[in-house]
Amino acid sequence: MTDKQTQVLHIGLTGGIASGKSAVANLFSSLGATVIDTDIIAREVVTPGQPGLAKIVAAFGTGILQADKKLDRAKLRKLVFSNPAYKEQLDTILHPLIRAETLAQAKSTAANSCYQIFVVPLLAETNFTSLVDRVLVIDCPIEIQRARLIARDKESITTADSLIASQASREDRLTIADDIICNDSDLAALEPAVQALHQHYLELAAAKSYRG
Q1: What is the pLDDT of residues 51-72, one digit of tens each?
Q2: Is 124 a domain residue?
Q3: N vs C: which end of the chain shows fewer Cβ within 10 Å?
Q4: Which domain covers residue 120, as residue numbers?
Q5: CB distance 117 to 36 below 8 Å
Q6: ∠ CA(39), CA(77), CA(173), 5° rounding?
Q7: CB under 8 Å, gap of 24 or more: what pairs does 50-56 form?
Q8: Alpha carbon distances (Å) from 9 to 102, 104, 130, 149, 187
Q9: What is the pTM for the complete model shown?
Q10: Number of domains making up the chain
Q11: Domain presence at residue 77
């Protein structure tokens, strides 16, 4: 990172699938925080014409494409869930591209950022922790994750449990947490928790900038 980037406070926001990461990120954004979502970046680096898509096709074949030459994300997800080696291969392709684009966006917005939030679903499973000053975990019981997946994505119980099990455990995420928001209720309950952390991060960001 550049000198300016090192003076910006970076928060890694993570949580299990259907834990409410997007809802929390949107609340932080509404308060003026810079939010960089690696899920969005992951979709951008595999659009037609991007090197990420070319590398995926080279690794898994043209059968992974839709008729319009766009990535068939459902087919790719099914493929990598069927074989851990495929998942590792895909991660090797995507993670460096996502990391590079995250840093590029962080650099381009550093001058106007009070602090930056990197939304990284797989923060506990990757080396993204090296890019952040603090880790914020959005936590909720597995039973609530399962219910949300079934209601939101129409997943079966078996598929929902497989998706949850494919990620780091709840305990592993909480182990790396500096801050925790429990999202076991509704949006109204999230707002005061986000507001409190926003004020805390502003104070930490000011102190870091002063030291820098």
Answers
A1: 999 999 999 999 999 999 999 9
A2: yes
A3: C
A4: 3-42+101-211
A5: yes
A6: 50
A7: 51/97, 52/93, 52/94, 52/97, 55/93, 56/90, 56/93
A8: 15, 16, 13, 32, 25
A9: 0.91
A10: 1
A11: no
